[in-house]
């Protein structure tokens, strides 16, 4: 019997504009009548839905399973040929990117709010990825947004029971093919083709008594991935993985892998003297690397991975085409690129900008200061990939120095002696008044336009002097397609090479989030003592000046940031 397709009348909702990572709002907003259906239909109206194959999955947060059933009904009604769905509706964002590419799907709908909290009173998100496995570019998200503003009805199949998402295999739903796949298997196979698992396993086995490992899934999507790699593939005990069961509310925590929200990992690493600790976020695209007494900033992490890439089979075989970072990220990777004679790109925040360069064959390794690191193996940042990359690097470093135990701290020290150190920190001010945030940005823009800041001298409480050499709004012209992205952050540079960036973020679900980035470079010649200073000490004067220039506390009505990374 032919499926019963109904056109449901609806009206547009304001504000369904996808950001750099899709549409993110509070759960209660998505639960409004027709709200989710409107957005899903707008996605399908923006692509060629009839005959398409789409990948569906999410990070396991509250509302994922119900939304998968909604997508099933709308997709079948719109003539989609096939849906490939992760078991129980779960797929990490990197795994989904891999599945889209491996199965040559036309795109994918991912249900995630990434590192934002989950649960009925927190956040939900929907984003569309295109056929290369990466986030939809602006021309697609703009089209989706335009559809949301004019939508008058959506199509839905009626009379069908919810599909069983927990059983693997081929199924049918209202005449549409559905394949339920294991969420982890394809991803692990991909990693085994990239990294030297034999070398990693040999290192972890022979040095087991002195080199301990701990992975924290933060009750997000990557717990099963971490367990499959570390326990089932590398043969480590089950105790090396914690918080590894995905929960709809992430166990009441904030699934953001940084020093604030992954504190249980940090505390355990320090208490038990664990040499290698790592965490990933809600949907698996971010990571934090932390060993006893050694925190690796995301900016340093991507630079070190690039520096050691020739020890990783994937890059040893295919070479490194180029390097890149988001604009707020420190210039540590630029120094690696310069020494190795590689092209290096500075792009706006948003992984889709890296995707264009990868598809053109000009980029291999890239990263963002927001704990995102990845390569051209997929078109998303990849938290678990970065964790295994570090294990591969550490295994290789210990093979090359068999008479000493090389840990995270030793890798960092060696890097700083060769390249110098980019002291870097980010201050996040979350859910601040939008009016105050916009006013602060407007004042900075006025100073940039008038050039009134250039030449200004600022003195910190400790007597350090900073003279502004340049102030500008970061604009980017894509070297591949010529598209232009304007107003991507306010930048102030100083004569000593230091830099401050302010940026309004689009990843929050309410209010505004202001991020302030501070960076100061110290060359190798300054010596070990200067290179080994605490980040807060090395940046204190610059932070004071950044707050003075922006009058941030005055506009945001906040004395302290929500998070410091």
From TrEMBL:
The keyword Ribonucleoprotein does not apply. It comes from the Eukaryota. Its EC number is 5.4.2.2. Belongs to the phosphohexose mutase family. Keywords: Carbohydrate metabolism, Glucose metabolism, Isomerase, Magnesium, Metal-binding, Phosphoprotein. CDD domains: PGM1. Its cofactor is Mg(2+). This is phosphoglucomutase (alpha-D-glucose-1,6-bisphosphate-dependent). Residues 16-154, 186-290, 302-406 form the Alpha-D-phosphohexomutase alpha/beta/alpha domain. PANTHER family: PHOSPHOGLUCOMUTASE (PTHR22573:SF2), PHOSPHOHEXOMUTASE FAMILY MEMBER (PTHR22573).
């Amino acid at each position: 019997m032919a499926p019963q397709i109904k056109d449901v009348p609806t009206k547009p909702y304001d504000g369904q504009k996808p950001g750099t990572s899709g549409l993110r709002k509070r759960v209660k907003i998505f639960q409004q009548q027709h709200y989710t259906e409107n957005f899903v239909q707008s996605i399908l109206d923006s692509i060629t839905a009839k005959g398409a194959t789409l990948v569906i999955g999410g990070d396991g947060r509250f509302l994922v399973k119900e939304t998968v059933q909604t997508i099933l009904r709308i997709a079948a009604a719109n003539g989609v040929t096939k849906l490939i769905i992760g078991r129980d509706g779960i797929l990490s964002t990197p795994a989904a990117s891999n599945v889209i590419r491996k199965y040559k799907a036309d795109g994918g709908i991912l249900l995630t709010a990434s590192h934002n909290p989950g649960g009925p009173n927190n956040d939900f998100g929907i984003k569309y990825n295109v056929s290369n496995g990466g986030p939809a570019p602006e021309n697609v998200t703009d089209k989706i947004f335009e559809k949301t503003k004019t939508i008058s009805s959506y199509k839905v199949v009626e009379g069908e029971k919810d599909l069983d998402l927990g059983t693997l295999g081929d199924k049918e739903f209202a005449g549409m093919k559905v394949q339920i796949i294991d969420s982890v298997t394809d991803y692990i196979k991909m990693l085994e083709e990239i990294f030297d698992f034999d070398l990693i396993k040999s290192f972890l086995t022979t040095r087991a008594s002195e080199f301990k490992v701990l992975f924290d899934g933060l009750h997000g999507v990557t717990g099963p991935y971490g367990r499959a790699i570390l326990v089932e593939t590398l043969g480590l005990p089950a105790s090396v993985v914690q918080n590894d069961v995905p929960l709809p509310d992430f166990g009441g925590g904030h699934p953001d892998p940084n020093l604030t929200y992954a504190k249980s990992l940090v505390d355990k690493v320090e208490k038990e003297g664990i040499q290698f600790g790592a965490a990933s976020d809600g949907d698996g695209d971010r990571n934090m690397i932390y060993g006893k007494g050694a925190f690796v900033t995301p900016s340093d992490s991507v630079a070190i991975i690039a520096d050691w890439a020739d020890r990783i089979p994937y890059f040893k075989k295919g070479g490194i085409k180029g390097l890149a970072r988001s604009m707020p990220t420190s210039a540590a990777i630029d120094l690696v690129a310069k020494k190795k004679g590689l092209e290096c790109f500075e792009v706006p925040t948003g992984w889709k900008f890296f995707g264009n360069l990868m598809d053109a064959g000009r980029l291999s390794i890239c990263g963002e200061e927001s704990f995102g690191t990845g390569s051209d193996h997929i078109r998303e940042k990849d938290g678990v990939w970065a964790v295994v990359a570090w294990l591969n690097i550490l295994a290789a470093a210990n093979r090359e120095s068999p008479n000493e135990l090389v840990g995270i701290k030793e890798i960092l020290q060696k890097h700083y002696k060769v390249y110098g150190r980019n002291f870097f920190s980010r201050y996040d001010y979350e859910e601040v008044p939008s009016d105050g945030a916009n006013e602060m940005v407007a004042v900075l823009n006025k100073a940039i336009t008038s050039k009134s800041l250039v030449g200004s001298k600022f003195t910190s409480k400790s007597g350090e002097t900073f003279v502004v050499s340049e102030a500008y709004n970061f604009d980017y012209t894509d070297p591949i397609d010529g598209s232009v992205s304007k107003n991507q952050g306010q930048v102030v540079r100083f004569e000593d090479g230091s830099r401050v960036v302010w940026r309004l973020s689009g990843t929050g679900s309410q209010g505004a989030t202001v991020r302030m980035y501070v960076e100061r470079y110290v060359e190798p010649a300054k010596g070990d003592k200067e290179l080994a200073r605490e980040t807060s000490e090395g940046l204190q004067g610059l932070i004071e000046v950044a707050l003075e220039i922006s009058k941030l506390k005055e506009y945001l009505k906040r004395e302290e940031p929500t998070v410091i990374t």
